[in-house]
Amino acid sequence: MTAESEEEPLWVGFDLGTQSVRALVVSASGGVVGSGSRPLDGRRDGDRHEQNPMEWWEALAGASRTALRGVAPERLRGVAIDGTSGTVLLVDPAGSPITPALMYDDSRATDQAERVNDEGGTVWSSLGYRMQAGWALPKVLWMLEQWPELARGARLAHQPDYITRRLCGQEVPADTSHALKTGYDLIHERWPGVLESLGVPESLLPSVVRSGSRLGEVCAEAARQTGIAAGTPVIAGMTDGCAAQLAAGALCEGQWNSVLGTTLVLKGVSSELIRDPNGVLYSHRAPDGEWLPGGASSTGAGVLSASFRERDLDELGRGAADHEQTGVLAYPLLGRGERFPFAAADAEGFLLGDPADDAEHFAALLQGVAYIERLCFDYLSLLGAPIDGELSLTGGGSRNRYWCQLHADVLDRPVRLPENAESALGMAVLAASAGRSTAEAAAEMVRVREVIEPRPDRVERFQEPYARLLGELEERGWLDPSVASHARARAGP
User: Fold this and answer.
1) CA distance linking residue 183 with residue 262, whole number of Å
2) Could you give the CA distance from residue 232 to residue 81 in angstroms, rounded to a whole number?
3) Is the pTM of this model over 0.70?
4) How far apart are CA 97 and CA 228, in angstroms?
5) With contact defined as beta carbons under 8 Å apart, do 364 and 326 qualify?
6) Of all residues in the chain, what percent carry a pLDDT higher than 90?
7) Is the pLDDT higher at 80 or at 345?
8) Exposure of 7 by Cβ count < 10 A (0-12 exposed, 13-18 middle, 19+ buried)?
9) Dist CA 430 CA 437 (whole Å)
10) Which CATH architecture group holds 249-491?
């Protein structure tokens, strides 16, 4: 928390995460003057992952009251909310939940995803992606088949839609960012006609406005429960991945944000829509009209904690620095299947070679995630995406300075470490950008902690193992030879 001028305006950002709701109160100069959080529970069973939407509201209200403790209500200028991408439920005409929320990684709609791609493939191709089982539209079809009696008179709600309606006390539009995975046409900014042929009635679908638009204002009852002053503007939000990108300040063409979280997520900025024939990259629309291409790998920091439970990862990281020339090669993957930079449902993690100790094993995993990140950028280059702007690293893994240095070395490019890249901060930036450029608001509110340069004597060290990983992925049939060839060409002789 920082001491800010008592006259500075404030914005509230909320992050509806998987395990908690986080609230931040942020000043015009980017200082966090209040924060709060509340845990969330869920129900997981195989492919099933559900949450109770009413718990979202209770957690958000509690987190908000904590964050606003001691804050003068008249200083608040707006509030925005992000949610997990692809999380949906059905509500009744009054906005009350009539189904549980199917979370972003609920994958029971596999059959429905195939049908959605068979019947709407031309539409999705024009928008630059293919639908996946975890996306919202296949889940909607699954819910309509599972609970047909509930669908009469029901409305579809994305995760933040339920909250913004409670905040405003009336029905409000969805935002374009969360509507993307429900099939909303971001080019023409309308629901495509193919939804009707898939059995999704028009009456089920919410109206949609561009992220950053004003939805309404906080009503008296919501003010009483949250502590947010009645009349405070409510701004249409974005998904959690986009929120993290805003918090990193990666909002100019060619800039990218790499989230080193449980999974590895990359998001960038392009003036043109990048279409991916393989469907592993998809693009959100920025509030200012640019495109935000990105993808999420199944590798990431999650494999580290899973491989070394109850171990001090910082200590292991310090030991990993002594094993940069390891002969052990890792493709760090939890579970089965890869999503980006290639799609391979049968992909599984592997470890080639015998680590001498845990530190060398840990080093191989750290390097493996960095190699996959490099492959992501090689694939983006093949698609014609602009990738030469600044790169920011965020997520839990970015707190480990050695790992950040390793990414700079493997990628052979500087990396920026924002002071605070929480998704909730990104939503405060979005709320502050209402009526002006989001990049302008971010420039004022996003603070950079450090810039790490690649070490020239280390860059060459990682070329050979990266080439070996390309060969392994290609030999196993997961990586297309044309992608591997392009990656080798970018590496040079």
Assistant:
1) 26
2) 14
3) yes
4) 23
5) yes
6) 79
7) 80
8) exposed
9) 9
10) 2-Layer Sandwich (3.30)
**CA 454 to each of CA 104, 259, 293, 368, 451: distance values in angstroms, whole numbers, following the listed order:** 35, 19, 25, 17, 10
3-state helix, strand, coil in the chain (%, to 5): 40, 25, 35
Q: What is the pLDDT of residues 426-468, one digit of tens each?
A: 999 999 998 889 999 999 999 999 999 999 999 999 999 999 9
Q: Which CATH number fits domain 10-237: 2.40.30.70, 3.90.150.10, 3.90.1170.30, 3.30.420.40?
A: 3.30.420.40
| Cα end-to-end span (Å), the chain | 49
Residues of the chain within CATH 3.30.420.40 domain(s) are 10-237, 249-491
Asked if the model's pLDDT at residue 474 lies above 60, the reply is yes
Q: How far apart are CA 185 and CA 202, in angstroms?
A: 14
CA 14 to chain centre: 14
Q: How far is CA 443 from CA 195, 259, 417, 425, 452, in A?
A: 39, 19, 14, 13, 20
Q: pLDDT digits over 90-110, tens only?
A: 999 999 999 999 998 898 999
Q: How many Cβ atoms from other residues are within 10 Å of residue 77's Cβ? A: 18
Q: How many residues does the chain have?
A: 493
Q: Where are the beta strands (DSSP E) in 342-388?
A: 344-352
Q: How far is CA 406 from CA 244, 386, 411, in A?
A: 21, 23, 8
Task: Say which residues have a Cβ less than 8 Å from residue 253's Cβ, sequence separation at least 6.
Answer: 269, 270, 271, 290, 386, 389
Are 283 and 274 spatial neighbours (Cβ–Cβ below 8 Å)?
Answer: yes
Burial 392-427 (b: 16+ CB within 10 A, else e): bbbbbbbebeebbbbbbbbbbbebbbbebbbbbbbb
What's the CA gap between 424 and 427, in Å, rounded? 5
Cα–Cα distances in angstroms (integers) from residue 69 to residues 223, 282, 373, in the given order: 14, 40, 41
Query: Are the C-beta atoms of 167 and 222 separated by less than 8 Å?
Result: yes
DSSP designation for 97: B
